[in-house]
Each structure stands twice: as C-alpha cells, then as structure tokens.
C-alpha cells in the first residue's frame, strides 16, 4: 500500500485500532467489531479494496501492527468452502463479511461416554455483508461459505501462523465415528 496515499478507510482502521489497543477487554472487542464494520463500508474505488475485488486472492495480509502484533487479513472464498471446527489458541479474532455470506457454527467441548473429548453444536448463524462477529480465546467454531463467492476480513490479535505452526496452540478438530474430536497424538 502506498504510504503517500491520502487517508483511506484501511489507514483509518489501523489508526483507530492502534489508539484503542489494550489488553483484551469487552471495550476493545466492541471497538474492533465496530471499526471492522466501518471498514466494510469503504468505497470500492479505494485502491486497496479495488485491488482485492479485482484480484480476489485466497488470502492477503492487509495490515500488521509492528508495535502490538495485531493483523488484518482478507480472504476470498468460494461457495461450499468449509473450514472444520477449530479454535485460535490464546488469540481472539473478529470475522467480518464484506460481500457474500458465511455460516459459522460454534461448539462446546464435552466429555463423551468413554471420557474422550467431543464437540457439541452450540449455535449456527449466518454473517452477511457488513456484519462482524468476535471469537474469544478458546471459542470453537467452523465456517462455510454460503454464496458463490465471499470477501471476508479477519482481524487477529496476533499472528496465527506463528501460534499454529511454531507454538502449536491452535486446535483443529477431526471427525471420527460421527463426532468431532481432538486429533490423536
């Protein structure tokens, strides 16, 4: 992104999040969701958004804060793309739908009859254009793209690639015998 460019919605979002940044609180999560909803109302002619809409990359980092580590990513998804139940480890995230629709189910982890962990469906909802929803540390959810295509924004309080690949803090659940459960070690 050209740093000489006049203030745009993406720059405003990152600036507001830097100003609001503090340890996890209800206020911070609400501010992030509100700022993400404002970002989704950006003029499609803004260069960063025009590029996303034209190129439709599977994933693109839009911003990474050098001081606080939070990140904003964009994801273009196609109808039926399913991401099985997972958590984000120690991190919290806010998903926002710019265009299209995303079904998100949430789960609770319980003990099965033999003491093995399994997931129980808690809730299923649909996020549509302009809506944002937070998921806190430990929240378990899946996602499914419901429309021909969807442009999603995902705000993460830290780099989840590091959380996942280096620290192994994320859990991706697997289906076994008709139930979602933890992967076998």
UniProtKB/TrEMBL annotation:
InterPro entries: RmlC-like_jellyroll (IPR014710), RmlC_Cupin_sf (IPR011051). This is Cysteine dioxygenase. The lineage of its organism: Bacteria, Pseudomonadati, Pseudomonadota, Alphaproteobacteria, Sphingomonadales.
